[in-house]
Design brief:
33% strand; single chain; four-stranded antiparallel sheet
Length: 54
């Protein structure tokens, strides 16, 4: 399912741009920003990386 810049992120995660290899991060409840190259459509949602435990 595609996402667009300006939509509210349901979960904290990275979004991969549909037109270039950039990705952006949006925290839960915040608006998804456009990619650094100005594109506004994202094709995939990537789970936030979890920290390593020592």
């Amino acid at each position: 399912m595609a996402a667009r810049a300006g939509e509210t992120a349901e979960k904290s995660r990275y979004f991969r741009c549909a037109r270039c290899p950039e990705r952006v991060f949006a925290a839960a409840g915040t608006a998804i920003p456009p990619c650094p190259n100005g594109h506004t459509e994202f094709t995939s949602r990537m789970q936030q990386a979890r920290g390593r435990r020592a």
